[in-house]
Amino acid sequence: MSDAQHRRKTRRVRVGSTAIGGDAEIAVQSMCATKTRDIDATVAQTDQLHRAGADIVRIAIDNEKEVEALREIRRQTEANLSVDLQENYRLADKVAGIVDKIRYNPGHLHHIEREKSIAEKVEWLASVARDHGCAIRVGVNCGSVAPDFLERYPDQQLEALVQSAVHHCRLLEDLDFDQFVVSLKDSDPDKVITANRRFAAVAPEVPLHLGVTEAGLPPQGITKTRVAFEKLLAEGIGETLRVSLTLPNERKHEEVEVGHAIIDDVRNGRFISVPDLDGLNIISCPSCSRVENEAFVNLAQDVRTMTEYASQHDITIAVMGCRVNGPGETDDADLGLWCGPSTVVLKRKAERVGAFGYDVVLDKLRDELDALIRQRAA
């Protein structure tokens, strides 16, 4: 970014050979969609993303076998690596010496070792990261906000999102740990803009990782992402970013290319007009290593094709690829699908309709969509 963009000055966070914040260029990130234990495929995709211009590549882990795979992946690639701890923060001390950054979700810290306080867990994470010269991302997500903050801010999910992020910043800073960045993500571009503006006003020194989670399939997913990123980057908010698109593995590098294109367009004053996002809104998560059945990507594409007849209706359909984000992040959608290894759970908002095979769930979704359209017309 040029000085003309008046970017805010945050602290500088080192992630391997890349810097985030300070006077560093905006870093572009992406995430592997391969199974972490498939070492050859994950190395190939890491290098694919790295060649496309990804400054940092994220890999998800969930167990000890994936830690061992990660160790070998690290040996075979030169990319800066970030690791997603998912629901098992206790793996941090096993991976911090392998990677350049660890990402934890405040909304997932309560899942294990319930006898320990959140502050104790954060203190341990900070000590592990400090001992290994590893950065941290505090990744707050709309579909998995920490329960205590949802209780504190009933019916104010966005405020709960922001305050959770602020709280974890204070926990880390009270420990004299400052090598961290923060992300506040939602599938709604307007909420992403609002949340990041609020956070930046409260904690202007903390580097922000921008993302529209579950942006969906291109080209709509690119448009949603641009709506949020253009406004925030033009205001000087955002030190690193990730474009989250539902793509097959061989096209995963397009996330990186789109990220660089958005940065370049904002730098040169090229903006798309803010589109009208009324009508049918299909949310789908980016394909990543948490996806439990690769049929998820095809299902998302089939949902878009099947629902074209309902394009004028203000209905949101969410298609999620894993058990980590699927249950929570379909709750706010009018209709939701979250995909397991062999079945897909169909929901009406938070209500579970049933679990169906991949070969029949599209027909079940159509029935629910038609019923919802008839209900609203009545």
Name the CATH architecture of the largest domain. Alpha-Beta Barrel
Our count of helices gives 12
Per CATH, the superfamily of the largest domain is Dihydropteroate synthase-like
Q: What is the terminal-to-terminal distance?
A: 52 Å
- CATH domain topology of the largest domain: TIM Barrel
CATH class of the largest domain: Alpha Beta
- Helix/strand-derived class? alpha/beta
| Number of domain modules | 2
Q: What is the beta-strand fraction?
A: 15-25%
- Give the biggest beta sheet: 8 strands, parallel, barrel
Spatial strand order of the main sheet:
3-4-5-6-7-8-9-10
Beta strands, count: 15
Given the C-alpha coordinates, what overall shape results? Answer: globular
Helix content, binned percent: 25-40%
Summarize the structure.
The chain is of the alpha/beta class. The chain has helices at 39-51, 64-76, 92-95, 118-132, 147-152, 157-174, 189-202, 220-234, 254-267, 295-306, 326-329, 361-377; strands at 12-15, 18-21, 27-31, 56-60, 81-84, 101-104, 135-141, 180-185, 208-210, 240-242, 281-284, 316-320, 335-339, 343-348, 351-357. The protein has an eight-stranded parallel barrel, surrounded by six helices. The chain has a five-stranded mixed β-sheet with strand order 11-12-13-14-15.
